[in-house]
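#structure-requests
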Amino acid sequence: MFNKDSWVLGAIIGIILPAAAFGLVYLILGISGIDNTNAITSAGKYFKLSNILLISIFTNMLPFRIYMVNKKYDKTGRGILGATIIYAILFFILFL
């Protein structure tokens, strides 16, 4: 399934992977007791919502490299890149 050169597959990977990474990081921080409202602790200052979103957006770098460099699937890589650009534009609209 993941060995197709398809723009749609790249878009699906590019949308689902950052959302899953965001949920995982947010869940781990919630379980560990680090909340982003408590800025007194040193970890609370660095794990703001905007930082968690940036971490989740950059998780697209690994599949982008795999599909563009290793497998030479340009259409899939373009789909991942397109989803990443959309996430980046939304990030700048929301946080800047």
